Hints:
The protein contains four helices and two strands; from the N terminus they run H-E-H-H-E-H. By secondary structure, the chain is mainly alpha-helical.
Amino acid sequence: MMTVPFANSSIASLISVKFNHAPLISVVDIAVEYLGLTPSTAKRKARNNELPFPVFRLSDSQKAPWLVTFEHFVEYVERVASMSHNDWICMQC
Length: 93
């Protein structure tokens, strides 16, 4: 596994390495680590459009995996990190 110092890397580049530079990421692959959801709960939320980013399937099959674009996922992570940072700054005052 490649070790990258966080201070010299952007969130997007770190996520890109983690997911092997894939343009699409499976919702199941991010469910536990990033969303705190079981894969089945993440799939249910995807089906009901309850996730905090847009998801889609590449076919009409119910067995097709739910996917999120790399850009939408990174935007979500950066938005949450920014909100958390702002909250932390406010607590320091």
